[in-house]
């Protein structure tokens, strides 16, 4: 069985249209898929009807509503996946609207900082890169690359946009408890995304998990993109210790040699519960 509860489309910072993400998932033989764009469900909405048509019972691919919310906890930017929530629920709509505005205001702040560093026109440039997509730092990086300010996207992050750099603006994100609350209110499953990407100490990560769980969090992403078997085992142990359900995802954004393709084979579960059990009929 292949599943994937963490993918991006061009509704945020992915390269493929939502329909192309779905086509890739079909080709790979994925049976359960969530498109989890950053702070938007616009991509999911474009393909939501795909398996909701007559005869859907025979469709081998089921698409689950999804989103990847940005938030802060203890001064760190955290990503929380919302799965299978009612996208039309008032709490979800209000939350998504708040984050739309937050991303716009944050883009202005990032642009101001880049202008101070001697890169005028950053806002217009990044907005042109984003087009209809939910704007984020990758659009600034793409603009800097296009302008020749950097040689690679990685260099743009390393020097100007990544963790601790001027373009790393997190002042606009809601609190972890708030976004988990929206997902729960809308009947969804909150999953703590890529726990190892926050580069926390073991102690701090456990405090994060406790706060996430106290807010109503249910799942831990034990496999996310490229990681070692040891890392997966470590995250499974954490899930077990805190009695969290297991989730897995590729965090697919685009074809690249270092990224992962759509579709994840779940790790051995050994008495653990998985978020997707509720969607297998
Ligand atoms: P934002 O959502 O605006 O905070 O931007 C974060 C996104 O930037 C992540 O979801 C990644 O897709 C992308 N990203 C982070 N670091 C890098 C990097 N070093 N190179 C390219 N993309 C990155
Ligand atoms: Mn991304
Ligand atoms: Mn993320
Ligand atoms: Mn992601």
Tell me what you see in this structure.
Helices cover 38% and strands 15% of the residues. The protein is built from nine helices and eight strands. It has a five-stranded mixed β-sheet with strand order 4-5-6-7-8. Strand 6, helix 8 and strand 7 form a beta-alpha-beta unit. Bound molecules: adenosine monophosphate and manganese (II) ion (MN) (3 copies). The site of one manganese (II) ion has 4 residues, from loops.
The main pleated sheet reads as:
5 strands, mixed
Order of helices and strands: EHEHEEEHHHHHEHEHE
> Based on helices, strands and strand pairing, what is the structural class?
alpha/beta
Q: Give helix % range.
A: 25-40%
What is the terminal-to-terminal distance? 14 Å
Over all CA atoms, what is the radius of gyration?
18 Å
Strand content: 5-15%
Number of helices: 9
Q: Ligands in the structure?
A: adenosine monophosphate, manganese (II) ion
Strand order within the widest sheet? 4-5-6-7-8
Provide a short characterization of the protein structure.
This protein has 281 residues and is of the alpha/beta class. The protein has 9 helices and 8 strands.
Characteristic terms for this protein:
single chain, 281 residues, alpha/beta, 5-stranded mixed beta sheet, binds adenosine monophosphate, binds manganese (II) ion
């Amino acid at each position: 069985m292949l599943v994937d509860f963490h993918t991006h489309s061009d509704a945020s910072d992915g390269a493929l249209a939502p329909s192309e993400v779905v086509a890739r998932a079909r080709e790979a033989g994925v049976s359960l898929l969530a498109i989890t764009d950053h702070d938007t469900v616009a991509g999911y909405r474009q393909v939501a009807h795909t398996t909701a048509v007559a005869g859907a019972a025979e469709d081998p691919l089921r698409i689950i509503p999804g989103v990847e919310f940005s938030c802060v906890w203890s001064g760190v930017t955290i990503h929380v996946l919302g799965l299978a929530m009612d996208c039309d629920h008032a709490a979800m709509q209000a939350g998504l609207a708040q984050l739309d505005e937050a991303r716009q205001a944050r883009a202005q702040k990032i642009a101001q900082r880049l202008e101070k560093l001697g890169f005028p026109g950053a806002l217009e440039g990044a907005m042109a890169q984003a087009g209809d997509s939910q704007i984020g730092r990758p659009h600034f990086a793409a603009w800097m690359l296009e302008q020749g300010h950097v040689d690679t996207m990685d260099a743009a992050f390393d020097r100007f946009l990544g963790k601790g750099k001027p373009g790393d603006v997190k002042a606009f994100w809601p609190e972890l408890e708030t976004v988990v609350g929206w997902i729960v209110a809308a009947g969804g499953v909150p999953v703590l995304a890529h726990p190892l990407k926050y580069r926390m100490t073991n102690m701090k990560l456990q405090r994060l998990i406790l706060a996430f769980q106290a807010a109503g969090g249910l799942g831990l992403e034990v496999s996310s993109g490229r990681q070692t078997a040891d890392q997966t085992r470590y995250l499974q142990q954490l899930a077990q210790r805190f009695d969290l359900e297991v989730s897995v995802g590729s965090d697919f954004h685009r074809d690249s040699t270092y990224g992962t393709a759509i579709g994840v084979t779940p790790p051995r579960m050994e008495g653990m519960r998985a978020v997707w059990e509720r969607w297998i009929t």
